[in-house]
Design goal:
Blueprint lengths: L1 H23 L6 H22 L3 H25 L3 H6 L4 H23 L12 H6 L3 E4 L1 H6 L1 H8 L5 E5 H11 L4 H18 L5 E5 L9 H12 L2 E4 L2 H9 L4 E3 H7 L9 E5 L2 E2 L6 E4 L5 E5 L8 E12 L2 E8 L3 H10 L1
Parallel strand pairs: 1-2, 1-4, 2-3, 4-5, 9-11
Antiparallel strand pairs: 6-10, 7-8, 8-9, 10-11
């Protein structure tokens, strides 16, 4: 409401000012002044709306670049005064040259300054003290890792530091999932939004919503890779394909699945563990159990022990992209197998 009042006041002020300027210089139609003032006011409003979508670093870089460009243009034009042949011939007025230099170098400085301004790391008041001392440590969140939810548990443990960046296009994808007609997708999208809200309330982690977009790129994954390269940030994801594509382009990846696998207890062949047989395996006679961390344990000749605890001996451990699998035998038949192997 307040912005609408300010914009209305700007339009009225510019229109009235244009009317009086046109009247002062005795234009045939004072309506021209009103229209000119109205167009200027609308132009200023459009510029204001465009600037609001830009980050502070982009605006700051654009201002600095423009000032530097105008300063270089002034130095060039000022140096031309010391050329004797120029003063005698006066082929081109110095004012016109300065105007051309100011327009060209000022525009060049604005574009370069706004592009390079994103590389500057500005300290934030809401960042933790450790981050302000050590500089920016930016990490970009993927949609999959937000929906997964384990990122909040990692933040709560204190192992995650720095600033977590959530692009606007990721938020839009989350909102699209949350508004889906599919109940499963809808619950996943709402879960992701709730996870972001809980992380944002944490005092140690700062969530930065950035409006930077890449309209020429299609797909959220391509935009995430481009944003990570532009901000020199790490990418947190659970997406296997995005992981590989980003690594090929030199982006540092933080994969929550890899972190979870690294934190699982190490089980070596020959160790004895106690598990509960939950269901039958794919092969004949196999039983399947799970450790507390979710690791699947395949036990040979254990299909008759469904719902019971059993001591098993680990024979091998297989690491896959989906996680880790442990293959084992029942402890009571291990000596028989060992004797059979010796006879062979």
């Amino acid at each position: 409401m307040f912005q609408a009042v300010i914009r209305l006041f700007l339009i009225v002020t510019c229109s009235v000012t244009g009317y009086f300027i046109a009247r002062k210089y005795q234009f045939p139609l004072s309506l021209i002044g009103i229209i000119s003032g109205l167009l200027i006011a609308l132009f200023v409003i459009q510029v204001e709306q465009a600037i609001r979508k830009l980050s502070l670093k982009v605006i700051f870089g654009g201002v600095i670049g423009t000032v530097v460009g105008l300063l270089i243009a002034f130095l060039f034009a000022y140096g031309l005064k010391f050329i004797p042949a120029w003063e005698k011939q006066e082929v081109v007025p110095l004012e016109l040259i300065y105007l051309l230099l100011a327009l060209s170098l000022g525009y060049l400085g604005l574009v370069l300054g706004s592009k390079k301004g994103e590389e500057f790391q500005l300290p934030s008041v809401s960042q933790s003290k450790g981050q302000m001392k050590g500089g920016g440590d930016y990490k970009i969140l993927d949609t999959s890792v937000i929906i997964d939810g384990r990122i909040k548990d990692i933040c709560d443990t204190g192992f995650m530091e720095g600033c977590l960046i959530v692009p606007r296009f990721v938020l839009e994808e989350l909102q699209l999932i949350a508004d889906s007609s599919d109940s499963m997708k809808r619950s996943r999208g709402r879960r992701g939004l709730d996870i972001l809200n809980k992380i944002q309330k944490s005092t140690d982690i700062k969530i930065d919503i950035v409006d930077q977009d890449f309209p020429k790129l299609k797909g959220v994954d391509a935009k995430l890779v481009a944003l990570s390269k532009k901000r020199n940030a790490k990418l947190i994801t659970n997406d296997y394909n995005l992981n590989k594509v980003a690594e090929l382009q030199g982006i540092k990846i933080l994969n929550v699945n890899e972190l979870a696998n690294a934190l699982k207890p190490v089980v070596l062949p020959g160790e004895v563990i106690t598990v509960k047989i939950i269901k039958e395996g794919k092969e004949t006679g196999q039983g399947v159990a799970y450790l507390e961390d979710g690791t699947m344990v395949v036990v040979d000749n254990a299909n008759k022990l469904l719902g019971k605890n059993a001591q098993v001996i680990v024979t091998s451990v297989l690491q896959t992209t989906a996680g880790r699998m442990i293959f084992s035998n029942l402890k009571k038949i291990e000596p028989e197998q060992r004797i059979a192997g010796q006879n062979l």
